[in-house]
Each structure stands twice: as structure tokens, then as C-alpha cells.
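This follows on from our talk about sequence and fold. Can you supply me with one protein entry, sequence and fold together? Could you add the entry underneath, on a fresh line?
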Amino acid sequence: MAKNMEDADEMGTIVEVFVYDLTKGMAAMTSQLLIGRHLDGIWHTAVVAYGREYFFGPQGIQSVRPGSTELQDPVRVEKVGQTYLPYSVFYEYINGLGTTKFAPGTYNLFTHNCNNFSDEVSSFLVGTGIPKYILDLPEEIIQTPIGQALYPLIENLTKSATAGFTVGQRFVEPRIRREDSPEYQSLNSEIEQARLNSIALEEKRNVINEKLAKKERKKKKKEKKRREKSNRESGSESNSTGPSNYQYDMADTDSTVAEISSQANGEAAEAAELMPSERALQMEAEEKRQLEELKRQRDPPIVFRDPIDIVTELEGFKSKLEGKLNDEEQSNIEELRQYVVENEGSWALGDNFLNFVGRIFYDKSLDSAIRVHLLNILCAAALKDDVILLLHQDRREHTIMNFAYDIDRHPLKEQLPLAQFIANLFENLSASEWLMYISEWPHQSQNISNIRVTTKVAVHSLLSESEDLQIRGAAIIHNLACKEKMNKNKKLRQMLPKGSLSKVFDDVAVELTMALLQYFNGTPAEEQLYACMKSLARFTQISGQEVPQLIQMIGPEPSKFRGSSQRIDELIEEINKKLRVH
């Protein structure tokens, strides 16, 4: 059965774009008269793949049987290519879009519409967007008299085309009746159920943790007031540490612990009403076990735990901004202090925190030292377990990654902590996954993605003239190359495009390899040489013939560094084995 599944994936899936005229011929008949230019139509598009038609409208992403919307038959069908992505990968991707970039309520007829959605999905599946004659329909035409005249009709027809369905705020796709094995269908069902269960548990844990954190803050405030009162009564400037106070502290602590424990038990009982407690505990234990297993299997990332004095950095950051912030921005600094100094969790960061970060990054009237302070603070934040929650807040505006992509435009003193921030994000599995997202967004007349940003920061840093920046670039490339041992995990391999053996896709591996080979023309220190040689060895494993061919064509041969150290010699032998095969 498993072999049949693999054969089915090898066959691929045809990807088509259905093109509809929202005016149903009216634009073609009246456009010449009204605007002096002939228009064939006002286009609505949908992507057809895996036996379903996917489109975006006011209700979000929808899915129907091909050709079954109220628009009926498409004006034309454009075949854009063939995808070898498993349906399970597409399913997770489309769900992600349905809750972020193309969530319900984000639709705009002129700037964020069905054609933008079709172009993005088509690019994801086959690497090619929808035809340019659709995307290039100028917005100014819609703003002409015909555009204004047809606007109500366009809007109504678009709304009536939402014959699919949504549940809550999340896109839901029914299982497709394909001739896949029962094992394949069962695996997909288990993955989806586990995902939903995990989300429910995570939300419940977040609620409990937040309530516990609030309880702890109340306890601290209560303790502070007690001490202040004690100081006033005793006339002392310092806190008393006598036996009576100690006994009071212990009693207060015991009481608070009991109260928190009671609160946690109450929350646990409430969670038990949602699902059997035994099953919930098993799921949580399994989730922890899987995370620990992933951490155990992966090669340790290279991160930088420099003894940054966070308090000093924060005070310097705050002092240099004195008189330059409004009240809301002042509160953002307090939120940042709670997060990085008091370790209160990323939930302490408000919804507009990233707007504040964007102001610091892009307001060039501010001194560069201010950005350096902020980046140093973010380097420490990157090592926190919950930094992923902050990163996910940035999925719409891409404030952080846009700034990182422009690393070559920033002063060196900003480049250093910026590269270190990217390297440190590999400390946690969730943040390292985020660095490798492939969904694209426009930035300065080009499309970029998280993996493209990460790659650019790595290459620029490695090939810079600054030794400190080179060290950080070598670390990022090492972390990318050693992200996961894909060649030993069949399930993870199935989540990738055909032929890939790593989450470092082939084109990225080639780009990184070229940077490594250029770096090898110098005389790297043993530690950086080892990290880079290890990366090169991994790329020869995951990227088919391309990397070995590059090494042979461009050079230098890895044997140039033989004798540097025993561990480097072992890596050189590993690489040479692949070179001899090719």
C-alpha cells in the first residue's frame, strides 16, 4: 500500500486556473463606449487542484466542486502546471492562509482579491503565478465610469460566488475522495485530529498560564505593599529579614501556592469537561515526548548566549528615546521590559508592539544606536521558548523580516545583532520552522519569503569583511543545513516537494553552497571552518547532484583543508565520497 501511495505522488496533480468574467459579458459590450478601450472582462479566478476548486472572497477561502459556483462555467481554463506536493502539505498550507493573509474579512475588491489569492497558491504549487493579463488589469480602469457603474454588480457577483463553506474563522476542506489507500486516509485524519486537539490544549494551557502569572504578580504587589508598610512602621529604610517576617513570607507563599494550585485544578477540571482528562494527559505527554525526541535527534544549533546586560541595554534604549515617544510607545517599552527582564511571557507584548518596532527600525531620524539597543534585546528574546508568538504577530506586516532582508543597507553595527538574532531563533523548533516558511509577500518590487530572508542574511554575513559577522553567517548556514535529519525520517520527506530531502530546498542549498565555496577561498578559523564544512557535507546529502557538481566545477576542493583538525578531516572524507560518486 505504501508503495502505491508513493507512486501516486510521483504522478503529480494537475493545477489549473478557472477564469470567470464577473460582468458576464457586460464589460466587453460597454467598455469601448464608456472608457474608449475594449475590455474582455473583469476577471475572477480560482485554483483547481486535488479535485476541488479553491477561491477567495469576502467570507475567506472557499472550496467547492469544480465549476459549481453561481458563476457556472469558466470563460477559459488555464493549465499552469503540475504539482508533486502531497495533499497533506497543501491542506496545512491552505489552512494557514485561511487564518492569516486570506482570513475572512481581509478581502478587498481592488487590492486583496481572488486573483491575488490564485497567484499566491499557484506559485506555491507549481512555482508559476497566474497569467499576467489577469494580474495586470489596471486598478485605474476599475476607477473609471465603467468601473463605478459595474462596481455593485461585481461586488454582488463576487459575494454570490461563495458557495463553499467555513467553520468559525478557519478554512475547512472536506476529505477528497481519491483512490488513496485506507492507511493514507487514516494518517491524514489522525494528523488533523491531533492538530485540533493540540490547538485546544495549547489554548487551555495559555489561559491557565496567564491566570497563574497574574496571580503571581498580585502576590508580588501584595508582598511589596507589606514590606513598605513594615518599613514605615519600623522607621527602617531597608526591608526586615527577621524571623517573624520570614514566617509571614512562608505563610503568604503557602497560601498563594495553595490558591494557585486550586485555580489550576479548577482549570484542569474545566478542561476535563471538554475532553476526557486521561486522553488530554496522554496527548500532552505525547506532545512533550515528540518535542524532546525532535530536540534529541537534531544537531544542536549554533546560538550566541553572549552575556548581554539586558537591563543596561533597555535603559540605554529608553534614555536615547527620551522625549521622542508618545504615551502608547512609552507603554511598549514597559511591555518589552516585562517580557525580557521580568520574564512575564510574550503575551505581555501588546497588539501594537510590532508597530513600535517598525517605527524604531524605519524612522531614520532616530540614532542608529537606538536600533542596536533594540536588536541586542531581540537577540536575548530570540532564545525564549515563546518568541514564536511574537513572530506570528508579524505575519501580516513582515516588519522584522523586511528589515532583515535589507541587511546589506544597514550599518555594520546594526548588521551584527541582526544576524545574531536570526541565528538565535534556531534555538527553538517552532521559531526555526518559522524562519523556513516559503509563503511569499511583496517587498520593494519583488517577492520574498522567510526562507529567502534567512538565506540572504546568512550569505551576506558569511561573505562580509567583518570576522564577527562571518561567524554569525557560518552559524546561520550551519543551522539551516542541520535543521533536521530528513534522510532518516520518511514522514518528513513526504512533506516536501518532490526530490527534496531537507527543509533546506534545493535552490537554497545551491545558493548557500556557492557562498561556502567562496568563503573557502580564504583562511577561516577552525571553528567556523568546521561549521561550514559540516554544512557542505549536509548539502551534498540533501541536494542530489547539484552540490557535488558545483564543488567540482567551482572549487576549491575540500581536501585543501585536510589536516586542520580530525573532525574536519572526517567531514572532508564524507564529502569526497559523494564527489567520487559523481
The chain has 25 helices and nine strands. The radius of gyration is 28 Å.
